Task: structure prediction
Amino acid sequence: MDRALAGDLARLPELLQSVRDVAVREVNGMSERPVASLGPAPAPGPLPGEGVGAEAALARFTERWSPGFSGSAGPRYLGFVTGGATPASVAGDWLTSAYDQNGCAAVGSWAAALERETVGWLRELFGLGEEFGGAFVTGAAMSNTVGLAVAREWLGERLGVDVARDGVAALGPVDVLSGSPHSTIGKALSVLGLGRGRLRRVPVLPDNREAVDVAALDAALTGLDGRPAIVVANAGTVNSVDFDDLRAVAALRERHDFWLHVDAAFGGFAALSPAYAHLVAGLDAADSVCVDLHKWLNVPYDAAVQFTRRRDLQLAVFRNAAAYLGPPAGEPDFLHLTPENSRRLRALPAWFSLMAYGRAGHREIVERNVALARLLGERIAGIPGLRLLAPVRLNVVCFTLADRPDEERVTAFDRAVAAGGETFLTPTVYDGVRGLRAAFSNWRTSEEDVERVAGALASAVADVPGG
Result:
């Protein structure tokens, strides 16, 4: 055995204790860590010829690389839609690596059974019936891709074509309709060979909304003259967390033939709260559903789940034939349900967090984040030089400069905010206007953090040139 490897094995308890100490220091200091690192990264170094051992590697990492890591797990990182990692999910993630299970199949391990239990809990959490099957994937992009891949197979079924066997060209042109599709929908259509250009944007409701106009969707489907289509509905848009009327959209299937895919990447978590569950009413009428877990479930990257009621079509798309795998008989192994064969046991951190905090604990995170988003919206409305671009509907605050929000000035404001180290936001364009988004999904965020963010915004806007 290599000398360094043998030494690490002999000192494994001490090594894990050292890593634990670094992790505790970083997690405990997360609230005061600069939220973003804007300086240049070190230049790439050469590959070591002889290893230095894990303790020395840890020391070099903490000296050379750790200072440049962002505070994305902390309470004032409001960019994208980024959760943190609850203590229980961190424990589960560490054990995921320690056990190092390949959760692709149920041979020789209970790992796949644990994933099935976790999927069942999540299905219940989001109010989906037992007819929905599910599996863990890497994130919303892959969840949307899997859902649309099953939709592609459904189109073939409707047209008498076996897409998995004969290829997407056998389908001919495909119509995909949506009001405010996330960027990953176009990416998925490209990957699946359906084409980004087949995505048709349907008019949205007036009065600064991002929700689809159901009457306009009805008219667009009528214009297809009976051709089956795919409809992508939104349960929480990224800019203003707007929700399509899922029940009304699903009701259109009484007159039109379409597969209903719902992108509920983070908006699906509204189901946890009695105050907001009405926003996702009708989610159980979908044919496939995307939910991202490293957002509002606050488990470590990367983790999402996909659901579909047509497990048979999912199996037709993703089944893998090899002598060492065996046929997908009975309850199919996960390698027959997603693009991956080899797959990390992403379910374990989610299992830990759901077991540790239950429905009530995760509901509290959702409701607190929504309250904090509304508080920041109130603070922004009172800051001279800033204005809201949309109502704070759930957990995202979308805003811009009150005067001349052009690209140059909004970019300068964004950089000034990030340079202050107190918070990190991401840019957007809403209703043709450039702005910024503050997305609340971290389990640690408090009212004190909101006040610090508001203070950082007030300071930064005062320094924007040309105001």
About this structure: DSSP finds 14 helices and eleven strands in the chain. The first helix runs from residue 3 to 10.
